[in-house]
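Long-time lurker, first post. I've been practising inverse folding by hand and with some scripts of my own, and I keep getting stuck on stretches where the structure tokens seem ambiguous. Below is the full token string for one chain I'm working on. Before anyone asks, I'm not after the true native sequence, just a reasonable design that respects the backbone. If someone could post their per-position residues I'd love to compare against what I wrote down in my notebook.
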């Protein structure tokens, strides 16, 4: 792994020389805000990345877990911080994708209030059913729903969550109906799915993989353009006939708006160097997360496109959480 002195020496002169004239960045610990409580998959992703990132930059990363408000409290804290590179936020699909699409009264602007630094990676979503449900394919599931109108239901991590919107896309595309039961987080939704109180769910692969392996739920299809290596026998929804169907539980890094270009360049290039390490890929695979390095410009476009896509779905399905 690159040491900080080697990394700085390899930077373009336009970045390295100004740093040499002034105090080099980073010169003190970096606060890394994770918008969920400690212990979950998102928190683990942040700690895995910052451990290696800190070694590369020769700086300490202090992980600051700020839960509540669907990530809004953490986003506010990050947006209000100084734009000097010493406060970063681990953005993810809820804070910079589905929430801006479903809530018109967010206390932050996911685009204007932040400087995108780079993507970390993502994990697909999986259409799963309770193992006792008599279906083994997407086609059989649709047939079951049509033959049992109003008798089946699905759980989600809450109104407007990715687990909610993904199933709404499925309902729209399939023409089948299934009742939505929103929960306060993915954990209680899983409890009722495993217990048979709900029949289906659309969670991330990272969260559902242990239950698939235990045989308590059955995977029918995954989102994405290709099958996932951890579920090689499970088809994509595109293979099942749903053209363009995609949903991604993604994680990335943003800073307060107005981050100086030299600092952004240092952070972006070092993050992508970390993501290129084979050790990191192995560690993230435990959370079924595939590294997806991007330039700041590419990540900014990704965020805008994700918000636009989920906004279109929310409007079509009449999902507005602030009304």
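-- Answer (accepted) --
I ran through it position by position. Result:
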């Amino acid at each position: 792994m690159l040491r900080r002195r080697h990394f700085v020496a390899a930077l373009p002169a336009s970045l390295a020389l100004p740093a040499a004239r002034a105090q080099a960045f980073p010169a003190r610990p970096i606060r890394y805000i994770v918008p969920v409580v400690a212990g979950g998959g998102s928190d683990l992703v942040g700690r895995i990345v910052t451990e290696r990132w800190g070694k590369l930059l020769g700086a300490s990363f202090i992980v600051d877990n700020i839960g509540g408000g669907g990530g809004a409290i953490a986003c506010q804290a990050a947006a209000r911080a100084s734009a000097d590179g010493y406060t970063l936020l681990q953005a993810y699909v809820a804070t910079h994708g589905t929430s801006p699409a479903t809530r018109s009264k967010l206390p932050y602007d996911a685009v204007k209030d932040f400087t995108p630094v780079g993507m970390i990676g993502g994990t697909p979503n999986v259409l799963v059913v309770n193992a006792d449900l008599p279906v083994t394919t997407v086609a059989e599931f649709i047939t079951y729903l049509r033959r049992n109108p109003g008798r089946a239901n699905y759980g989600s991590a809450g109104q407007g969550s990715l687990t909610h919107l993904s199933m709404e896309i499925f309902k729209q595309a399939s023409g089948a109906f299934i009742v939505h039961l929103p929960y306060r987080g993915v954990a209680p939704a899983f409890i009722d799915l495993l217990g048979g109180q709900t029949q289906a769910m659309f969670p991330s692969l990272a969260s559902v993989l242990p239950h698939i392996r235990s045989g308590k739920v059955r995977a029918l299809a995954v989102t994405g353009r290709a099958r996932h290596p951890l579920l090689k026998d499970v088809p994509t929804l595109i293979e099942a006939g749903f053209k363009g169907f995609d949903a991604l539980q993604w994680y990335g890094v943003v800073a307060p708006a107005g981050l100086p270009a030299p600092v952004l360049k240092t952070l972006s290039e070092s993050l992508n160097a970390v993501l290129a390490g084979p050790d990191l890929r192995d560690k993230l695979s435990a959370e079924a997360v595939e590294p997806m390095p991007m330039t700041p410009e590419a990540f900014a476009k990704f965020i805008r496109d994700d918000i636009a896509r989920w906004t279109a779905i929310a409007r079509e399905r009449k999902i507005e959480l602030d009304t």
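A couple of notes from the structure itself: DSSP finds twelve helices and eleven strands in the chain. The two ends are 51 Å apart (CA to CA). Happy to go over any region you disagree with.
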